[in-house]
Write a structure and sequence with these properties.
This protein is α/β, with parallel strands linked by helices. Helices cover about 35% and strands about 25% of the residues. An eight-stranded mixed β-sheet has the order 1-2-4-3-5-6-7-8, sandwiched between helices.
Length: about 220
């Protein structure tokens, strides 16, 4: 199955499944919403043997315009978004192709931020966060492995935030690593916006699949 899915009135999204069983991956979109690139990421995960579900945190709207995306993110109820992520995780855990398997997440920008914060609940077995790192006021130890996929130039983060966050996680006992991709800027892995860098995104994606394979299939 590859297609849009409504699980319950408050949760819809896009799901892609492999031919057999496999671990689950919750894919969390950036501030632009559930664009074709997010669906393509789910399809790619299914092709690699994962059951992928991307919850629509906006409940319908999506855009490629940065100003519109900022307005959508500003209007987002974070508690409601986390509840949708929790419902999505539960949906994957109960899925017939995942049952008994592990659950990871891949989050992009806003979605990466939300994924890192949600991982503190202990509901996830691995987290990949693209161009996202938490500032000191929101940091908590995470009980699962973490991979940060970072842009070389990122206007959304103070330059020392990713390094400081990585150090915090490691000091707290979290297995954490980071990759910084040369020649990239924020949203480099979003194929639907001008800042996309297809070559770097492909390398980061291969790295992401390897990370998820190690920690969700082990």
């Amino acid at each position: 199955m590859h297609g849009d899915l409504t699980i319950e009135p408050d949760l819809s999204g896009y799901q892609a499944e492999p031919g057999g069983s496999g671990p689950g991956v919750l894919v969390v979109h950036d501030w632009y919403g559930l664009l074709p690139g997010v669906r393509a990421a789910c399809d790619a995960l299914a092709g690699a043997g994962f059951v992928a579900f991307a919850p629509d945190l906006y409940g319908g709207p999506a855009t490629t315009d940065a100003a519109e995306a900022e307005a959508l993110m500003s209007a987002l109820d974070v508690a409601e978004a986390r509840e949708r992520m929790a419902l999505g995780t539960m949906h994957l855990r109960e899925h017939r192709r995942v049952a008994g398997g592990k659950i990871g997440t891949v989050g992009f920008s806003m979605g990466g931020d939300l994924a890192l914060r949600y991982a503190a609940t202990g509901e996830l077995d691995a987290v990949v966060a693209y161009y996202a790192a938490l500032d000191p006021s929101r940091r908590e130890p995470l009980p699962c492995p973490v991979l940060l996929q970072l842009a070389e130039v990122d206007e959304w983060e103070p330059p020392d935030t990713p390094e400081a966050y990585l150090a915090f996680l490691r000091e707290a006992g979290t297995q954490a690593d980071a990759r910084t991709w040369p020649g990239t800027e924020h949203s480099f892995a979003n194929p639907d916006v001008p800042s996309a860098n297809d070559a770097a995104a492909a390398l980061a994606w291969a790295d992401t699949l390897a990370f998820l394979g190690r920690h969700l299939r082990g």
